[in-house]
Design goal:
The protein has six helices and four strands. By secondary structure, the protein is mainly alpha-helical. The strands form two sheets. A two-stranded parallel ribbon has the order 1-4. Strand 2 and strand 3 form a beta hairpin. Helix 1 packs antiparallel against helix 3 and helix 3 runs antiparallel to helix 4. The chain is elongated.
């Protein structure tokens, strides 16, 4: 069982990593808020749901309720973004987004995968 505090810390880290630079595009560092506007791809606007679901999950933690589906949904948008980005490129050049990303972008992917994985493990209350 995973403590509820651990899941809350993961959500807080997700919020922090969302505003850190993920990768460089034409000389400009992009983070979770600026990627959809800079890249102008409609699908990428799903990224804005990650902090919304993370905040809903944190609200549930502070109200001493179960995290519910919000914890799982907080990890989905960032994972979908990286899957889209890595498989968007054809002709075997899918390494390009990974090669030009900063450590914060790679950490964000790892953290969102960790959130998805731990969402299937039951939560233990911290009381």
């Amino acid at each position: 069982m995973v403590p509820k505090r651990f899941k809350a810390v993961l959500l807080i880290l997700l919020l922090i990593l969302f505003v850190m630079p993920w990768y460089k595009s034409f000389g400009r560092s992009l983070n979770g808020f600026t990627i959809p506007l800079w890249e102008r791809i409609d699908f990428l606007f799903v990224l804005y749901l990650a902090p919304v679901f993370a905040l809903c999950g944190l609200y549930a933690v502070f109200r001493k309720k179960e995290l519910g589906i919000f914890y799982f949904l907080a990890g989905v948008p960032i994972t979908l973004f990286w899957l889209f980005w890595l498989y968007h490129f054809v002709n075997g050049i899918s390494y390009i987004p990974w090669q030009y990303s900063y450590i914060w972008g790679k950490t964000g992917l790892f953290l969102s995968l960790l959130i998805l994985f731990t969402s299937f493990i039951p939560t233990r209350s911290n009381s």
